[in-house]
Amino acid sequence: MKKRSILMLGIVCAVVIIQFIRPERNNSVQEQGESMAAIYHPPDSIRLIIQQSCSDCHSNNTRYPWYAEVQPVRWFLEYHISNGKKELNLDEFASYSRRRRIHKLKAIKNQITDGDMPLPSYLWMHKEARLSKNQKEQLTTWIDKLVDSLKSTE
Ligand code: HEC
After folding, report:
1. Which atom of ligand 1 is found nearest the CA of 88?
2. Quick check: CB of 126 below 6 Å from ligand 1?
3. Measured CA distances, 89 to 15, 122, 123 (Å)
4. Are the C-beta atoms of residues 26 and 56 closer than 8 Å to each other?
5. Which residues pair with 61 in a beta bridge?
């Protein structure tokens, strides 16, 4: 065999082999009682925005697209999910201290107004997650009110 064919065969084998290395899915059937929505009862419109734009990386339940079955795509997704959850897990918000919750809420507002979240790479494939000006305003207004009320219960 020519050197080039050996190389091609090697690449094909590698692509096939990596398909079998799948990280566990970020799907949990746990109760959602600790979630941000369960403790702060956002209106449905806000809940929907967060669900559509943030929950895939910041909760214990990701809606996986079909291409997540193709490696190395899944590794890339899991990397974002585990880093995203480390910073902010909306399903475990109740377990954060009051100070941390306030800090995270402010961070959410900053990320949204600066346009840093959702991650740009996510928006390529999830057009519905893009936040309109109006959605950003709804979210930030809701967060401002919540932060004020959390601060006033000191
Ligand atoms: C594709 C995955 C993904 C999506 C979708 C996503 N994030 Fe993130 N988020 C991350 C990752 C990864 C980090 C870790 C830091 C980094 O890489 O920027 C992060 C970090 C953050 C942080 C920083 C926490 C801190 O304390 O500094 C906040 C706040 C945040 N995201 C809010 C949001 C909000 C709000 C949305 C929805 C509008 C959202 N994210 C959507 C992946 C995501």
Report:
1. 24
2. no
3. 33, 17, 20
4. no
5. 27
Q: How far is the CA of 117 from the centre of ligand 1 (A)?
A: 6
Please report, for residues 4, 67, 71, 111, the alpha-carbon distance to residue 23 in angstroms, rounded to integers and kept in the order given.
32, 14, 10, 28
Which of 36, 111, 137 best tests ligand 1's pocket when mutated (most atoms within 8 Å of CB)? 111
| Ligand 1 center–CA 118 separation, angstroms | 6
Domain extent, residue 36, equals: 3-152
Q: Tell me how many domains the chain contains.
A: 1
Residue 154 has what pLDDT? 63
pLDDT band (50, 70, 90) for residue 2? confident
